[in-house]
Structure formats: structure tokens, C-alpha cells
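Two entries, shown back to back:
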Amino acid sequence: MKERIIEGFDWRLIFVMSAITMMGVLSIYSITYAENSGGSMPLYVKQIFWALIGFSFFLLILFVDYHELGRFAYVYYFGLIVLLLLVLAIGKTVNGSRRWLSLGLFSFQPSEVARFVVVIVVARYLSDRKKGAGYNLKDLLVPSLMAIIPTILILKQPDLGTALGLIFPVTTMIIISGLRARRFGLVFLLSLMTFPFLWEVFWRSLKGYQRERIITYIDPGADPLGMGYQVLQSKIAIGSGGIFGKGLFGGKQSQLNFLPSGHTDFIFAVFAEEWGFAGVALLLVLYLIIIMIGIDIAYKARDGFGMMLASGILSMFAFYTIVNIGMTLGILPVVGVPLPLMSYGGTAMITTMVFLGLLLNIKMRTSVLFDY
């Protein structure tokens, strides 16, 4: 059985994941190398450190049967709610947002952990209650609440991007699990009818800068020196990259600090300016390979929990990739979503690698699922 598990190991995922991570480290090094003259550890070195820790977790989770994770899903969920409440009570505030819990030597972001936990707990619930004829609306109340409760707590921090990132995979899993067509149509109709009310509630819950980001999305030129500045500079950076880019340290928008948050939310613009269309095409192909591997794993999974879990992970990964690239291109609002494996950040890097490790875990155990 162990031999068959090892046969399911997919080196393609390791190679593609490593390649994207190295591209991110190079981009972080390029945009921050001028700031590394001080005594603190350079950001690109920290990113390498987080990547190594993340890869360690990636390998570690391969030795844990993913069914065991599902067994304790509700315990994880309770712990997550406690952590999110602690953030609101004693969390560390940075740039007006209270998202971090300080543990002395380092801080971590529970909202990133929420992505991992919510996908697991909803996958467990849906797989336990699989209905051949599909779900009624009342059947979806519990999984919806599982997503809504942490979403509200994360919005309070505030962290709009991560909150939206919880809703999308849960919705995907519900649809895949079998929502009756008639019920789906009813949900869609009710959504249209209640949209004005829900939008008003949503709009009032946003901070001022978050409202400005949405307005800026509609018309970036309305505030070119304010909230529209990032999007306009990002478009300039991407467009100026040309076919083959300006090379490492060659991007004027990034090197001259015209592009804020270049090592985090807007790292795609930095990469596009330095490596051009050719580099962007290669990067998109690498992301597409991961998505195609995930689709294959979800399709071939032999149990409901594995299929739901793989679908949730895949939709989460695709959501973050598409939204981040979309907001740097100005076709989606700026909601502070990191680009998986590239944007600077320890918690995001580790969480993403754990997700990918779970995908490979499902693949490795698919062929032996019914042998024990």
C-alpha cells in the first residue's frame, strides 16, 4: 500500500510550485534590495525562510491521511472562531487593520488560517450529508453559516479580500455537491430581489478606504493621486514591460517607488514590468498547470470528502490568483488579495503550501482508498 501511495507523488506540482515561489523571491529582492542596507533581515531572505517553512509543512502533511483532518474538522472550526475573536479583542493593529496575533518573536494572521479551516469543515459537512437528489435550501443553512460567521468576524478586522475568499470556495463546493436546479434558480431570483438591501448592508459595513477602492475600480481617473494611484501606476508598470521586460532592477515604476505595495498585493505588476509579456505568459502557464492538476485530482477522487476538499482548495487558489491579477490590471477592485506563492507574507505562503500539500495528499491516496 505504501508503494502505491508513493507512486501517486506528483513531481510536476513540486516543480511548478517551486518555480513560482522563486519568481516571487526574485521580484521581492528586486523591489526591496535598495532598502536592505539597514540591520534588519531583508524581506527576500524572510520570504525564503517562510517558503522553506511552508515546504516543510507541505511535506509533513503528505504523511497525514486527509481523512484524519476531516475527523477533527469541527474542533478546528471552534478553535478558528476563538482565534478570530481574540484578534478583535487583543489583535495587533497595522495600517488601520487589526488582523494579527502577536506571539512574541513573530505574528500570524488567523484570517489566513480561516481559509484552510472553512474549506475542511464545509467539505466534511457536505460529504457526510451527500444527497443523490440534491440539496434543498434548508440543507444549505448550516454550511452557509459555517462560512458566514468567520466572514463577518474577518470583515470586522477589516479584511475584505479574505472575507470574499471564504465565500467563493464554499459556494463552489455547494454547487458541485448537488444543488437542485430548481432550488438554484430560486436562490438566484431571491438574490436579485434582495440585492439592494444586501448591498446597503455590505456598503455600510465597509471602511471609508474600502468604499473608495470600489469607486476607484469604476473610475481610476477620478482620484489619480489618491486611491486610483495604485491601479494607474500598476497599469503603467505592466504596459511598460513590453515583450521581454526591462530586466531585474530595470523597472522604473517599481524601482523609483511609484508602485506602492510592490512586494505584496502588486507584485504581479513588478514582475510584468521586469519580465514582460514573455515572463507573464510563462507565469500564467505555471498557474494554469496547478489548476489543471487540481481539477484532475478533484475529478478522480473516489470519496466525497476528497472531492469536496480538492474542489474547495482549487477554487480558493483560482480565486486568489484571478482576483490579484485582475486588480493589478484594473479589471477588478483592489481588495488586498495576495498572489499565491509570490506575494510577500509568511502566513499566506505557509497556508498556500499546506493547501497544495493537501491536494497532493488526496492524489496519493486515491488509488489505495479502498484497500484499508
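entry 2 starts here
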Amino acid sequence: MMAVKVGTRLTLVLLLALTPVVTIYTYWSVTRSTRTYINDLKRETRASTRALVPAIENDLRDHEWDQIRDILKRMSRDGTLSALFSSAGTLWLARPAFPHDLTPEPAEFSRSDSQGFVEFERLVAGRRWFCRLVAVNLAGHRMGYLLVAQDWTNIREDLRARSLGSIAAAVLVMALIAAVIPLTVRRYVSNPLSELSRRVTHFSDQDDGDRGPAGDEVELLTEEFRRLDQQLTKAGADLLERHRRELELERRLQHADRLATIGTLASGLAHEIGTPMGVIRARAELLLHSRPAAPKFNDGLGIIINQIDRISRIVRMLLNYTRGREPIRTACDLRRTVEHALSLVETEAAHRNVRLIAALGDQPLTAECDADQLQQVFINLAVNALDAMAAEGGTLRILAEVDDLGRGQFARLTFADTGPGVPPQARARVFDPFFTTKDPGKGTGMGLAVSQSIMRDHGGQISFVSGPEGARFFVTIPLAAPQPPAQPHNGSNVETAR
């Protein structure tokens, strides 16, 4: 079954709605016009009779029969006839062409006596007449009756012609509407819907074999939107799955970056662990080969226990840094996180003859964050600074400030080293994944990329400036609550030198 286009359907609906309206209006207009025209003719006839009766009464009183005949002659023109009847109802005076069948019935004379006049229509010899019969009195006595008859035969034909003209005009209007509506609908409805259908269909990747039979534009749009909804739902699910995989990959990259950092710190931590192990061995040999006094024996065991605790603390810090887990946002003091990160790199800094100076202020810097992730950022920045100063040593300063950027307070942590700085040709790619200026085997190129991703996830960012005096990396992160300004000072919270 062929589908009806929406333009055709709309045209049919409009025509069905307009046809009764136009028909009723045409009928009302014709009826009203006919009634008005007939009422005008009746008023004309009534006015004529009202004007004639006084004149005829005067002529009857004066016996002016010639005047009466002249009046009847002048009245019998343009389709109007007049006649004078006696009080007995017999024809008194009339023109020769007056048809006798127009003579009123006795009942009509009686009604004229009681009402003063009577109006009626009569069909005579195929012609229709409108008649008005008026009583003529003289000195209070009934003298006769005046009949004025108006030929309405041509009037009926004229009214019929007018009605046909009105009907023809209505039909013409409907024809124009039937012609204009499809053009208008096609231009402003069908064509835009067809274009929208074509564009929506363009987004659908369904095969033509899967499509049902084409309907009108609305049905086609409905079907295509349904297909598009299915495809968008599927694409949304694919994006969620891809996002899940990207998050998993990002976690793995962060963990890999931690392992790479551990590789850098391994030698220093091995030395750090080796020292207490040597002390433990010496004390154990002493206790094994000698019989010290009880106080000395207790002192030796105390030293062994302290050294074991030291080893456990170093290993625990390393394990906590290495262990992967789901991110957890809590309120934490950024100063404690920085200090913990520096405690992991201080041995490596000492081996490389680098002094660590942290001026973090006396006021807490509280932020909603994942402390382990921020610790990874701070360690990456510190290790990069140590690598930059590996040749001759130097100083790494960490400063804390509070800035108001117009959208809340932010903590600003500055990592400033005294190395050679970032080469100009590498500055645009510092945060690119797998880009590194380190020697082969000494870096993966993921540290700064992962760190920037972590900071953006926390609503902050990492930026830097570089010059001959070294590089300065700035870490900004929004604070959880308004903070008093952090006052940098010359004293150092953490300082390591070899």
C-alpha cells in the first residue's frame, strides 16, 4: 500500500476543515443577501402603497376619476401593477393588462379589513407576483381596496443567478486553496522534512536491506531517529567501555611510573638499608662470640631492634609508594604530603650532592585530594630535579604559597632547582607522553605526562619556567577552604646535604 505523504495528508485535512466553513459561509451569505434584497423590494412596495392611499382617498372624495386612472397607469410600470377594488371585492378600476387571477380571495379582503392591509404571493400564468392589499376609507367608511402587485419572476431568476455566482466563487476559492496549500506545504513542510530525513538517514549506518518500506516523511524520520538512538546508545556504551579501559591504562601508567621512580631510588635505598644491616651483623657477632655483661647485652639488643625498625620503616615507605589502589579523595595537608615525598628522595639527593630545602610555612594547606597521587607528582618533580643536577649537585627548593585566582584560593608549590634548565627546543614537548631529554635507560618520558594528568584530575595544573639559573615547576591545586597566606621563611623544614 502506497503511503500518503505528509504534504498530501495535510492538504486533505485542511480541505476537509475548510470545505464546511466555506459552504456554510456561502449559504449564509446567499440567504442573507436574498433576504435583504426581498425585504428592500417589500419596503419599496409598502412605501408606494402608503403614498398612494391618501392620494386615491382625496381623488375619490373629489370624484377625480381621471386622476385615479392616471395614478394607476403610472404605477403599472417596471413590473408593477395596481388595481382598485370596490368595498364588495369586485374590480373597480385597473389597467387592461391586469390579470384577473390576481384578484384577492374573500379571506384576503377580510384580513385587510381587520388588519388594514394584507400581503401575499401568487403564481399567475407562470409568473410570480408579490401583492399588497390596502383598505381605502373615506370619512370613516370603507370605500374600496387598493392592490399593488410586483412581478418577482425575474427577481427570482436574478437571485438564483446570484446564488450560482456565490457558489461558483466558493468553488473557485476552494480550488485556489487546493492549489496553494500543496505548494505551500511542499515548500515549508515537505521539503524541509525531506531534507531533515536525508540528513538523519546520512547518520544511520544501517544497511538498506534492514530498512522497512518507506512511509511518509514523519514515519521515515521516526524510524531514522529510532535507529539513530540505537546507534547513539551503542556508541555511548562503547565510549564508556573505552573510557574504562583508558582509566585502567592510566592507572597502569601511573603504577609503571612509580616503578620507574623506584628504580631511580633503588641504589640510594639499598645503601640506606645496607648501613643498619651492617650494624645488626656486627652486634649479632659480638653477642655470639662474647659473653657481655647484662647491661651491655641489653644495649646491643636495643641497637639491633632499632636498626631493624629503621629497615622496616624504609621498606614500608617503599611498599606504600609502590602499592596501587583506587583513588580516594580526602582532606589532607599538602605540606605533610610534600614532606613524605621528600623523605623518599632524601637519600638519593644526598648521594648526588643535592641539598633539599623546603619552606612550606606554618599554616596548613588543606585540599580535597588523593595524597598518594600527589605524592607521586611531587616525587616525579623532585627526581627530575635531581637528574638535572646529577653532574655537579646543587639545591632543590620547595616553596608553598596561597594565591587567590578570582575563582577561589589555590595552593602554589614551587620546585626550583639550580640545574641547566629545560632546553629551548624541548620546552613545547615537556608534558608529551614518552618524551624525555634523559639518557637512554634513565627515563620513560611518562613522569610529567602522568603528573599533569593527575593534577588536572584534581582541578589544578603544572606549569614551568626555565632559564640559565635552572628550572622552576609550579604545582597549583584548589584548596578546600579559605587559607591564611603561607609565609615562606629562610629556615628549612627539610634539609639534606652530603
